[in-house]
Amino acid sequence: MAHSYAYLDKEKILHLHPLEDEAVKHGKYVGTNLDYDESGFPVIGGEGVVYYVDKDTAYVNGNEHEGKQMLYQAALKH
């Protein structure tokens, strides 16, 4: 059984939710074993990250306007 369910919001930002019923509300989704923080963002290296799929870029401690860009996000591509 999946640890969480991943889906993209309208801005193509990756979100995770423990309940399939909630993920399905956003259209396409997939079961995953990625951990997530209390905001529903994936956790990489112990920190929640905001991952923009179209830009292939992730930010720690905020979004693209206020967060710090991660230099390596290969863990999100599995």
What key attributes describe this structure?
78 residues, mainly beta, three-stranded antiparallel β-sheet
Description:
The protein has 78 residues and is mainly β. 5% of the residues lie in helices and 35% in strands. The protein contains one helix and seven strands; from the N terminus they run E-E-H-E-E-E-E-E. The strands form two sheets. It has a four-stranded antiparallel sheet with strand order 4-5-6-7, with no helix packed on it. Strands 2-1-3 form a three-stranded antiparallel sheet. The chain is globular and about 30 Å long.
Total number of β-strand segments? 7
Structural class of the helices, strands and pairings?
A: mainly beta
Q: Enumerate the spans where pLDDT stays under 50 for 5 or more consecutive residues.
A: none
Rg is: 12 Å
Mean pLDDT: 87
Query: What pattern of helices and strands is seen along the backbone?
Result: EEHEEEEE
Percent helix? under 10%
Overall, the morphology is globular
Please list the strands of the largest sheet in the order they lie side by side. 4-5-6-7
Strand content: 25-35%
